[in-house]
Amino acid sequence: MSPTYQVVFDPLSNIWLSALVAFVPILCFLLCLLVFKMKGYIAGFITVIVATIVAMFAYDMPFSLVGASFVQGFANGMWPIAWIIIAAIFLYKLSIKSGSFEIIKESVMSITPDHRIQVILIGFCFGSFLEGAIGFGGPVAITAALLVGLGLKPLYAAGLCLIANTAPVAFGAVGIPIIAMSSLVGVQQYEVSAMVGRMLVPLSLTVPFFIVFLMDGIKGVKETFPAILVAALSFTATQFLSSNFLGAELPDIISAVVSLACTTVFLKFWKVKNVFRLDEVKDFSSHKQMNFGVVFKAWLPFILLIICIIVWTQPWFKALFDKGSVLDYSRVNLVFSNLEGSIVDTAGEAINLAHGISFIGLQAGTAILVAAILTIFFLRIKSNVVEEALGDTLKEMAIPCITIGLVVAFAFIAKNSGMSGTLGTAFAATGSAFAFFSPVIGWIGVFLTGSDTSANLLFGPLQQVTANALGVKEALFLAANAVGGVVGKMISPQSIAIACAAVGLVGRESELFKFTFKYSVGFILLIGIWTLIIAFFLNGIIPETVLVQK
Fold first, then answer.
1. Cα–Cα distance measured from residue 85 to residue 244, given in angstroms and rounded to the nearest whole number
2. Distance separating alpha carbons of residues 234 and 215, to the nearest angstrom
3. Are 342 and 2 in contact (CB under 8 A)?
4. What is the pLDDT of residues 275-323, one digit of tens each?
5. DSSP reduced 3-state for 359
């Protein structure tokens, strides 16, 4: 029988001293990444060791429960998080190796010769689509390389793509930042998704105009205003509706497709009078119209992805997996029994956190895999191509998946031991000012980790506990962490390195950082103020948080 552990938020009898000790593992993680420049999985492993030491010696948590928390966290990192990522990357690889991806690029590039609008179509719309489908640095690398091919200077292309990538980050990689955080803190992802969608409205609506302003000032905004308005409005409205009614998986993908389609159709009837170029190209006769059937076939893998995920989110489909239903046999549960009832709160009540993992076909990763299988069938992709795509996916994602597992393991140790609760209790002492700092925490997290998912996993429990301590609905601070993180992405060292590598600027990362830093700071200040306004003046737009039944 496992020993019983009672969570204590102030083990050192001084909340600020206890918070300082609880912050040590996080500080270790940040130092490993920033100062010692360690790889993610090494930093994660060292942080887990430090967290274990703090949990055992500062919080008196039995080693058996620390070990069980590690296994629980690592397993949650593998399923469903890693499963979703692997399936998404596999679908993306199939698109590339089948030749569909080249047609997708050509279909986007042939719409208009104006660089300002091209950046919106590729960096904002197409980048959002890639962020929603694959995430994890790929969108910035792909779109920046595309824009360089269209005539933009490398540094400029990389910087604009980093800024354009802000709006979709919260719902990246089929919603995994929100799904992972919601699973960790034990709340329904739909409430968090809805709140993120509501908070992102000003940012999503502003970013396209801001990008054009950076490129060509007020004159550029005036000349392209109709097209940019269509792109911004269609994206923002679709992101809001899908995040509020469909959940976290689809907002990026649907918003990008709708915005790209609306803007493309609009450009068939409206043409910019003064074509703006950053190169010397003046002859645009090489652009050709593409056959609709060819374009549709090229986009088919991602159309199937949208269809499958929509089906997977429907109540009638979910019911097929209920106990006694036709697909009940697909349910296999992994339960962490030695955590069951072993951890109690400060009042002595058992904390229901020993939930298991359900290996069922209802997972979003399974929906993506089905889309990939349908893609193979409809596009008649040869078996050797499929084998190559799968091999590349597993090879490229092995280390990232281990890193995710270690980060989630640390998050579970911090949560189960009470470290997150300690930090939340300390932050709650700042009172109502925390509403401003809530998104700043997410911003710092993404700046340091390079991932909104990692930042949400690290700080989600802290946001939850602080919200409860301050009497604020949990959904606001959980969403604020994700929304603050999106503008930290443009200054993340990992994002900067990926963007520079994609456009041939390795070694010039400081220049790109200098370009994006001031804009990132400006955005996070505005988001902090926006969160304050919601908390104290627009409280009615915050959905009630529903806890997950374990």
1. 23
2. 22
3. yes
4. 888 876 666 665 566 788 888 999 899 889 888 877 886 778 878 877 7
5. strand
| 150/174 Cα distance (integer angstroms) | 28
CB of 46 within 8 A of CB of 141? no
Provide CB contacts within 8 A for 237, sequence distance 6+.
Answer: none
The larger pLDDT score, comparing residue 252 to residue 2, is at 252
Tokens matching residue 335: 């339960």
Q: Output phi, psi for 332, to 5 deg.
A: -130, 120
- Work out whether strand 332-334 and strand 357-359 pair parallel, antiparallel, or are unpaired: antiparallel
d(CA 219, CA 274): 11
DSSP 351: P
- The pLDDT tens digits for 155-205 are 888 899 999 988 888 898 778 899 988 888 888 888 999 999 999 999 999
Amino acid at the residue 281:
V
Pair 96, 48: CB distance under 8 Å: no
Q: What stretch of H or E contains 343?
A: strand 343-344
Contact indicator for 20, 423 with CB cutoff of 8 Å: no
Q: Where are the alpha helices (DSSP H) in 77-109?
A: 83-97, 100-109
Distance CA 121, CA 101 (A): 16
Residue 1 pLDDT exceeds 60 = no
Cα separation, 22 vs 55, whole angstroms: 9
Asked if 182 contacts 192 with a C-beta cutoff of 8 angstroms, the reply is: yes
Neighbouring residues of 321: CB distance < 8 A, sequence distance ≥ 6: 327, 328, 330, 331, 360, 361, 362
Check if the beta carbon of residue 463 is closer than 8 Å to that of residue 477. Answer: yes
The model carries a pTM of 0.74
Q: Give the CA count within 13 Å in the CB-facing half-sphere of 413.
A: 34
Q: Which residues contact 52 (CB under 8 A, 6 or more apart)?
A: 63, 66, 70, 413
